[in-house]
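Q: Could you predict the 3D structure of tRNA (guanine-N(1)-)-methyltransferase?
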Amino acid sequence: MKITVLTLFPEFFDSFTNTSIIKRAIDNKHVDFSSVNFRDYTLDKHNNVDDTVCGGGAGMLLTCQPIVDAIKANRQKDTKVIMMTPQGAPLNQQKVHELAQSDDVIVLCGHYEGFDERIRSYVDEEISIGDYVLTGGETAAVVLCDAMIRLHDGVITTTSHEDDSYENGLLEYPQYTRPIEFEGQKVPDILLSGHHENIRKWRLKESIRKTYLRRPDLLDKKELNKEESKLLSEVIEEEKMK
Ligand code: 4G0
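A: Sure. Here are the predicted structure tokens for tRNA (guanine-N(1)-)-methyltransferase:
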């Protein structure tokens, strides 16, 4: 996968690309990452990339010319152009899977009060990482790029991401390591029993419990099978008793 970030702060991505799993993914050529300053494309004599809002009002907007020229210069036929904004479609794990299918993406990061509306006609997907406003799209772009890169074969060597939170529509079950008792808190006996079927059922039930307590909206969306429905009924009964 090739990722080109268009940004006013290409250095912002240095710590991301020089750290741990992402660095290895780039070194091993699972991903070809670059960040490009769209100010380099401005034709303005003062190198400006923003201007005041037509019709008046406070603030500045990113203008069309530098960004559209940067998109045109960095896109191929099959490039997906993604823009990070608070008005975009909410990012979730399913969306990450969809976007990570693309072989070539451009991720556009904004600043100021946002973009001239006409820039959107050069964009395929407008994405938000959540309902809050950031000073720039760079932090949002790092989140999106990280989530896409880690799904690529060989980036995470185990299959541990297959039972990650959200991959099955449920939050992750509680997990423990040694010691068996820490400051009075014990590892649940069942996890030490060696009984794989009981452990599987306990984990599924505790996944359902955590999702029911913290993210009931995820349960509303999920199609539960017979076993899961039964475990959810048990969880609801148990939580009522507490
Ligand atoms: C475009 C993304 C970009 C418009 C970017 C701000 C939050 C997110 C930006 C604006 C961002 C997100 C209208 C303020 C840059 N903040 N939630 N900031 N406006 O993904």
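Q: Anything worth pointing out?
A: The mean pLDDT is 96.
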